[in-house]
Amino acid sequence: MLAGLFLLAAGEEEGFSDAEKAAVEAVTNAGSAALHAEIESSPVGIAPSLLNDSEIKAALEHAAQEPPDPEFDFAQTFDEIANGGILQDHPLMSMAFIDRSGQLIGTTGMDKALFDEVVGLPEVTATDGEARFSATLSGRLHAVQVSRKLADGSGRRLVAIQAVNLGGNSLLRKVLGTYPAGLVRDGQVVGEPMGGANPEDLKALVLDNQDSIPPGEGASQVFELGSGANTRIGAVSRVPGPAGKGKSPTVLAVLSLNTLGVVDRDLASALQSAQTRNMNKVPWPIIGGFLLVALVLGWYLPHMEGVAPLKRLAGEFQGFVAGTQHQIFHDTYKGAVRDVARSAVNAQEAVRIAVEDEFAAMDGDEEAGAPAPVAPTPSRARKARPAPADDPQEPSAIELPSLQDGPDAEIDSHSHAENPRQRVPARASEAKEDPNFDAASSAISADLGLSAAAPAFNAPEDGAASLLADDPAPGRQPAPPSDPREAYFQEVYDEFVALKQTCGEDTDNFPYEKFAAKLRKNTDQLLKRDGVADVKFNVYIKDGKAALKAKVVKG
After folding, report:
1. Could you give the residue ranges of the DSSP H alpha helices within 371-449?
2. Model pLDDT for residues 447-472, shown as the tens digit of each residue
3. Most buried one in 225, 262, 340, 539, CB count within 10 A?
4. d(CA 58, CA 108)
């Protein structure tokens, strides 16, 4: 680009290289060879086989009778036999019978009218044997096949014609590729231009260099067409066979892919070529300006390609923090930004798993001085749900997810209204009368004072007793019933123990003090929240085990 701008600024143009000229000449020669192959492979070559058909032989013998049979129409019989045989498989072909004087005695096919031109071709009347050649008929290039003369002395012979395939699947198109090209005869384009060629350019290339076209089938030298930045180069070659001979030959014209204005040049070769042509006055300020613009664009464009995705990623993180978005869509990015987004997602997941493992492993170490668990990320937060419809006394309850043991633990969201919900009996005697309970080990779920959407812990597999193993004060006795809160804890404990017994769980190592210590701690943490007036606990069955949920009562 810089070389082209320099040459334009210097008032000169760089010419086409020898390699580009050689390429155009080579493509022209290859195109001529492809045309020859298309003509030789035309289906007209099978037309003479019709002479071996028994019905045609009988029709020809009948037509040769003397005196002729006035009721016999050879043209109609020939048309029926040809269309029922060869033309049925090759509908683009046309055929005709001519006598020794060149008169048509029968025609059939799509282009029957073209035989008036065919019978006038010297190649049809100049030979007695079979021949295949090219001819330009009615503005299109055709392949022509002439059979031998019949041995009966009538001089009759079969002629077949079909337009040469120049479509997108033709050998010629495959050879030319994207090079602009076309066939030209008498100053007119034969057929359709190829490769997006301008018909006027094709005609000008042939007409301006008509006298320089070689008599053979090889490509001509390379000619220039146009002027200035629109200059192209091109070459021409005669079409193989009779179509490319005579005073009005049909020729193949091939143009270069690019004009002079877009020819690929690097700056060094352009400057060297300019100096060779005595262009000693180099406009260095202009060259420097172009170079500066290129450097700025070279820095700015990649910078913008990276900044825009980073801004979008930063916006996703802000939405994540604000709670308006719950994940980072790393699959929508590319390159290094995608790697950063994916790493952020993986880091978030690692933190979540670590928090879940911390909650799942909480036991007596917490009161012995172990650090408190880290609050989960906002994206994993659970929202507080209203109290179930069958419990109108408690306007709000904490939805507590359950954490399974192991590194692959997943959050299992619980609903206050189990489906179907199992009612918790007040005492073991009532539970025994309820047929809906199944015996299993116990589990306990309770909120640990995080946000209303925070995950909670579950008991390990050996039951809730191990969860409550941290006895805050050995030997401490339950508070007297005169304390309403302790009395409530005692009632919850009795219900929990009764339900564990109903479910077939062991309650021998499940003292009240360990259970009540947890209830006190959870109650104190939940009461610190804004708007919380009281905390209630609901005993229920989860997966066949006794479980506990904390509910907050709004003030």
Report:
1. 428-432
2. 333 333 333 333 333 333 333 434 44
3. 539
4. 18
How far apart (Å, rounded) are the C-alpha atoms in residues 472 and 487? 19
How is residue 480 written in tokens?
A: 């007297």
Q: How confident is the model at residue 263 (pLDDT cuts 50, 70, 90)?
A: low
Whole-prediction pTM: 0.48
Largest separation between any pair of C-alpha atoms in the chain = 143
Q: What angle do CA 384, 390, 396 make, to 5 degrees?
A: 25
CA distances from 140 to 60, 164, 502, 506, 532 (A): 32, 8, 99, 100, 94
Binning pLDDT at 50, 70 and 90, where does residue 4 land?
A: low
Q: Which two tokens stand for residue 15?
A: 């010419």
Phi, psi at residue 260, to the nearest 5°? -65, -30
Which tokens go with 553? 């009562």
* Of the candidates 188, 189, 133, the residue with the CA atom closest to the CA atom of residue 164: 133
Backbone φ and ψ for 210, nearest 5 degrees, come out as: -55, -40
**Closest residue by Cα to residue 209 from 142, 177, 261, 255:** 255
Element (H, E) at 554: strand 545-554
pLDDT tens track for 210-247: 888 888 878 888 998 888 778 899 999 999 999 888 88
Q: Which positions ≥6 away from 523 have C-beta within 8 Å?
A: 485, 535, 550
Q: What is the DSSP string of 473-498?
A: STTPPPPPTTSHHHHHHHHHHHHHHH
Q: What's the pLDDT at 266?
A: 56
Contact 363, 472 (CB under 8 A): no
Give the CA distances from residue 123 to residues 128, 132, 207, in Å, rounded to whole numbers and listed in that order.
10, 9, 27
Q: Which token pair is 350?
A: 């690692």
Instruction: Tell me the two tokens of residue 319.
Output: 């939405």
- 30 vs 228: CA distance, rounded Å: 29
Burial track 388-427 (b if 16+ CB lie within 10 A, e otherwise)? beeeeebebbbbbbbbeeeeebeeeebebeeeeeeebbee
